[in-house]
Amino acid sequence: MKIRLLKEGYKKDELLYTAFKNGEVVDDLFFSEETMEIEEAPDFPIYMGKGSEIQKKADFLAAFQAIASSYVKVDRDIHLDERFWHSLLITKKRDYILEKYPQVLESYREFSNIVIKGFDWENYIYKCILAVEYIEDATELVLSKEQYYELIVDNLDIYNYIIKYSIFRNGEFLVKILTVIHNLGISELLKGKITDRPDLGKDERYGRRVIFELNKAYPVLMSPLLDIEALEEEFLKALGNYCDVSGIESQNKVVL
Predict the structure, then answer these.
(1) Per the confidence metrics, is the pTM higher than 0.85?
(2) Exposed/middle/buried for 192, CB within 10 Å: 0-12, 13-18, 19+?
(3) N or C: which terminus of the chain has fewer CB atoms within 10 Å of its end residue's CB?
(4) How many CB atoms lie within 10 A of CB 98?
(5) Run of H or E residues at 190
(6) What tens digit of pLDDT does each residue of 2-22 get?
(7) How many Å separate Cα 129 from the centre of its chain?
(8) CA distances from 5 to 8, 78, 82 (A)
(9) How many CA atoms lie less than 13 Å away from 253 in the CB half-sphere?
């Protein structure tokens, strides 16, 4: 399948939105002469910003499966290219998008947020691509791939902070962190809001603060390079700055 790439500057062109709404994105006005090729391009959820937690989880897992079976197998220069994804969505996925996300017809803002959102840690396709890369490329998994994918969704707040910090944005560290969380059984705790610390922000979560502490300690503490037992110890130490961790014990001592 050949994907013709949109011209540079398309994200600021509201005429593109009008053409998309009307099913008329065929004019050379919008496209460059550049193309990228991909063998298959299955539909998958591209936006999980609304809906129930159950629906969001189902959508994430469906996206992981579709990306793992196809998109992640093509060259990284393609599946991490913003213009490729936006061009694919605009030219090949209009019907799917209108069926699943009809709100894109309501305003240019919705269209920008769902279809042509900047390709960074806040973009759901980007989140899913990195997750699939990390899990599919991992060589030492203590749990099944399916369990790690579920752990990512169940700990999305922490996952977002990990991929936000460049020093932590690697598969080995993510797998270790998820393994620690699984071993300690603290997914729900980490999502909890910190309510007794007026010195912190208004919406601080325990998991976010742990990643914040590990980031603050870098490079004195090279947390991405720690083995699983040492990382677990540092994780609990960081968490202990915000709550009592004396009753938390690892259920499965594993060294990676």
Answers:
(1) yes
(2) middle
(3) N
(4) 15
(5) helix 187-191
(6) 999 999 999 999 999 999 999
(7) 7
(8) 9, 11, 10
(9) 4
